[in-house]
Amino acid sequence: MKKNVGSVDKIVRIVLGLAIGAAGYYYQSWLGLIGIIPVATALINFCPVYTLFKLSTAEKPKE
């Protein structure tokens, strides 16, 4: 798996995932578990959806 999630994208994913999880906890809904997905993709620096669309927010390696 090639890294395709950049640092700003990573922060946004973590914040969004925690917000979704907190909303699920507050409203006592199992849908809050969806927040695991953005947090997990941020922690492993890889998003499978990005590969489908050939996108990357990761920094390019310096040559």
Keyword list:
single chain, 63 residues, mainly alpha, 3 helices, 54% helix, 0% strand, elongated
Short structural description:
It is built from three helices and no strands. By secondary structure, the chain is mainly α. It has one domain (7-52).
Specify the biggest β-sheet.
none
Q: What percent of residues adopt helix (DSSP H or I)?
A: 40-55%
**What class would the helix/strand composition place it in?**
mainly alpha
| Low-confidence runs of at least 5 consecutive residues | none
How many runs of DSSP E, i.e. beta strands?
0
First and last CA, distance: 21 Å
The mean pLDDT is 94
H and E order? HHH
Any idea what the radius of gyration is?
13 Å
Tally of individual helices: 3
Share of residues in strands: under 5%
The number of domains: 1
Quaternary arrangement of the chains shown? single chain
Shape: elongated
Structure description:
The protein is mainly α and 63 residues long. It has one domain. It has three helices and no strands. It has helices at residues 7-26, 36-44, 48-52. It is elongated, with a radius of gyration of 13 Å. The two termini are 21 Å apart.
Write the layout of secondary structure elements.
Blueprint: H1 7-26, H2 36-44, H3 48-52
Helix pairs in contact: 1-2
